[in-house]
Amino acid sequence: MAIQTYIKDNQPALCALLQTLVKIPTVNPPGDNYAEIVGLLEAKCQALGMQTQVVPVPTDYANEFISNAENHPRLNLIARWDIGAEKTVHFNGHYDVVPVAGDWRVPPFGGEIHDEWLYGRGADDMKDSIAALLFAIQALQETGATPKFNVECSFTCDEETGGDLGAGYIVKQGLVNADYVVNCEGGGGMNIGNGHNGVLWLDIAVKGKAAHGSQPHKGINAFEKTAELVAALQRLKRDLASPTRAFTLADGSKRHPTLNIGGTFRGTEGDKINTVPAHVTFSIDRRITPTETLRFAELELRDTLSTACEYYEELNTDTQTLLQIEPCLTDEKSMFAQAFAKVVQAVRFNKPQFKPTTGFTDLHFFVNSGLQGIGYGPRGEGGHAIDERVHIPDLVRTATIYATFMSRAEF
Ligand SMILES: [Zn+2]
């Protein structure tokens, strides 16, 4: 109870911490002000008595993923509260935010509070989680409570661009020394995210041959070839919608793999009404259910593309992979997941449900390296959109859930 009271009584300090984080525009791309926020977070963790380790990503390595690593160094922070317990739980939050666009009612990096909401880019995705997590640790310490496990935290960059230089990097380097992970987003309220869908983004270039529009038989029409290819992809799309391909959620509902064709679609500069189009490029967004694998989804898609190229004459394609994210899943019946659910129920007076999210987070890096993990964070609105904001009462409840979990959970 003391922990709950501490967090409730110190709500202004929790909001002030979040405001400080929101006011540092860690916009990605390109990856602005990373050193500043990592410095601030490190000082905060040290003030909480945690052992800290700043993990810079070597420029050469970073340049394999991005083009501006010299001017925009990639940094991650790990902080540990080691109490000598047998088990360790890792808590992760990404500190980068997506760029600002559109007409905001408030300054995007102002951290203004109106009614029960705190506004700003990152206020929901996911600096609110970072503030709630740090405040949970502070609440334990200020009330003299000891966690039931060693607490290991990471504050990582680049989630918004795939996470390879953030959570992906620290996992790959073996810097995560934990048994379980709470990814502080990808769930919230009455939903615990025990996994998420994976993603495969491809760009397909269809190559034809230009000719004068008055003599189309002399060319190869890339637009018409694209139509043939799209017909083949639509057959795959129908397969994905069949009952055998569904993933069944804890509540019995079904989720299918999906295929979005042509989210981006373009010709070339030289396209004209009287020219046979020689080049068409379009995108494919394949969402992978938690029980599929990225490898399987990619093989299936590439097989569809190559079969179509064999079947249709003069259909030539060139495929580029833009993004690959593995799906992940943690058994909702595991002791760890159940222990977290019990705490959510105690704080919210209602039984939560398990639901892997359709969007992806950094959770897969941890879970696919062998940790059991769930996603859970405060509830807000407008992430990746205008007037992003977090509901302060939910920020408080989530900090309480983290703190209660640390101090009481048994698994
Ligand atoms: Zn996020």
What would you note in describing this structure?
The structure is a single chain. This protein is 32% helix and 23% strand. The strands form six sheets. Strands 1-2-6-3-7-18 form a six-stranded mixed beta sheet. Strands 4-5-20-19 form a four-stranded antiparallel beta sheet. It has helices spanning 2-9, 11-22, 34-47, 59-62, 127-142, 167-172, 222-240, 294-311, 335-348, 363-367, 392-408; strands spanning 51-56, 75-81, 88-94, 113-114, 117-119, 150-156, 180-183, 191-192, 195-196, 198-207, 247-248, 254-255, 258-266, 279-288, 316-325, 328-329, 353-354, 372-375, 380-381, 389-391. Strand 4 (113-114) and strand 5 (117-119) form a beta hairpin. The radius of gyration is 24 Å and the shape is elongated. Helix 5 (127-142) packs across helix 11 and helix 7 (222-240) packs across helix 8 (294-311). With 411 residues, the chain is an alpha+beta fold. It has two domains: 2-196 and 327-408, Aminopeptidase; 198-325, Alpha-Beta Plaits, CATH 3.30.70. The chain is built from eleven helices and 20 strands. The mean pLDDT is 97. It binds zinc ion. Zinc ion (ZN) binds at residues 94, 125-126, 159, 185.
